[in-house]
Every structure is written in C-alpha cells, then in structure tokens.
Amino acid sequence: MGSLLFTATGVAGPQDQAGFEAAVTGGTGSYSRARGEVSAAFTATTTVLTYHLQ
C-alpha cells in the first residue's frame, strides 16, 4: 500500500464549515504517481475526506 500526499494553501479546520479542496500531488508505495483532487467536509464530530484520483 502507501500514503497519499495532498497540497493546499491556507489554514482550514472544523470552524470552516465549507471545507476545502486540494490537489493530490503524489504519495508513497502504490500511490507514488497519484494525481487528482481531495475535498474535505467538516461536521461537529468528523472530517470527511473524499479523494478523486486519476
């Protein structure tokens, strides 16, 4: 397996109810050449990350 790496600018956290989008720029292992997008949505108790990989 491996890990994904995403790159974003700015600061986001649970106080930012709108969430954010960032670029997937690579990773390790099986994901070393990964590209795509990730979006984050925040609720009162969780953070949901949705990855769209190419």
Would you give an account of this structure?
- There is one protein chain.
- The chain is mainly beta.
- The two termini are 17 Å apart.
- It is elongated.
- The mean pLDDT is 86.
- Helices cover 0% and strands 48% of the residues.
- The chain has a domain at 18-53.
- A four-stranded antiparallel beta sheet has the order 1-2-3-4, with no helix packed on it.
Give a short summary of the structure.
The protein is mainly β and 54 residues long. It has strands spanning 4-7, 20-27, 36-42, 47-53.
Name the features.
54 residues; mainly beta; 4-stranded antiparallel β-sheet; 4 strands; 48% strand
Q: Give the overall shape.
A: elongated
- Regarding quaternary structure, how should these chains be classified? single chain
How many strand units?
4
β-strand percent reads over 45%
Strand order of the largest sheet: 1-2-3-4
- Structural class, from secondary structure content? mainly beta
Instruction: Summarize the helix and strand pattern as letters.
Output: EEEE
Largest pleated sheet: 4 strands, antiparallel
Rg measurement, Å: 12 Å
Poorly predicted segments: none
Termini distance? 17 Å
Q: Work out the helix count.
A: 0
Topology of this protein?
Layout: E1 4-7, E2 20-27, E3 36-42, E4 47-53
Antiparallel strand pairs: 1-2, 2-3, 3-4
